[in-house]
Design goal:
eight-stranded mixed beta sheet, two-stranded antiparallel ribbon, alpha/beta, 8 helices, 276 residues, globular
């Protein structure tokens, strides 16, 4: 059989029969690219909404958070690399939940303060079909849909998912092409995703400040200036890096974090320091 190209993100993986893409979550099966992590969860927990992080959407509430496996980036500092940088063969036990079963759990947890479902932990959109199917069911039941994503997806995926989301936190890894080159990503896709998401959803952004990668004053100025051009009311979370996964550099200097916050506040109304 001939190769088939995946159209979920900028990688455009050209896959032979039974070959898995860079994300480890999409595969050529009988000439079709399918999400092999559909309904296969590695994590499920009732979290505070602030953990997503969302500081200005339903503060004080809780949300049922679910994650699967796979990601289309390769961040050496990934805090969830055990599931993001892994394929199905790495797990002996997965929670298998259909959209209908996830809806039932979400409704059951309302008594404990749950407001809906957050698609998080790994990159949820490498398995966007599950997110889409669950989100449609939750919306009918007037429950919230929250997405945590790196935003590195195609316009096709954006248009299917964003209109179903009540709130989205988008990881902006940096604001130079060189930063995304290191991580195997694409800044242009992220910018397009942010602009589209801001049209219909509550949006907050997160930038993990990694020493030597994206911790420059000029980097933050360019990022904040661009965010303000979209909407100066979009909250930006500036988060402190700690050694994790493949990176051993010391944690980000707190004084530098404060300087970056001050720069961002020149352009944006809401800037939040995280992990400090």
């Amino acid at each position: 059989m001939s190769r088939v190209m995946c159209d979920v993100c900028f990688h455009h993986c050209s896959l032979e029969e039974n070959q898995v893409g860079i994300c480890k979550a999409r595969k050529n099966i009988n000439g079709k690219i399918l999400g092999i992590n559909y309904g296969k969860l590695t994590s499920i927990a009732l979290d505070p909404i602030e953990k997503k992080p969302l500081a200005f959407y339903r503060p004080g509430s809780k949300i049922l958070s679910v994650g699967s496996f796979g990601c289309n980036l390769a961040c050496p500092f990934c805090q969830n690399h055990e599931i993001a940088d892994a394929g199905e063969e790495n797990f002996s036990n997965l929670y298998e939940l259909s959209p209908e079963e996830l809806l039932r759990i979400a409704k059951r947890e309302v008594i404990n303060g749950n407001i809906g479902v957050a698609y998080t932990y790994n990159e949820a959109l490498v398995g966007y079909e599950y997110v889409r199917d669950c989100a449609k069911l939750l919306r009918r039941e007037h429950l919230c849909n929250v997405l945590v994503t790196n935003g590195c997806v195609s316009k096709k995926v954006s248009e299917e998912i964003i209109p179903l989301m009540d709130a989205i936190n988008i990881d902006v890894k940096g604001f130079r092409k060189e930063v995304y080159d290191v991580l195997g990503g694409e800044l242009a896709s992220v910018k397009e995703f942010v602009i589209r998401a801001a049209e219909t959803s509550h949006v907050e952004l997160t930038t993990l400040i990694v020493p030597g990668l994206n911790d420059g004053i000029l980097d933050m100025e360019e990022e904040a200036k661009w965010i303000a051009s979209v909407d100066k009311k979009i909250p930006l979370h500036i988060t402190r890096y700690f050694p994790r996964h493949k990176m051993t550099a010391p944690a980000t200097d707190i004084n530098q974090m404060r300087k970056l916050k001050k720069v961002a506040e020149t352009y944006l109304e809401y800037v939040v320091l995280g992990n400090v």
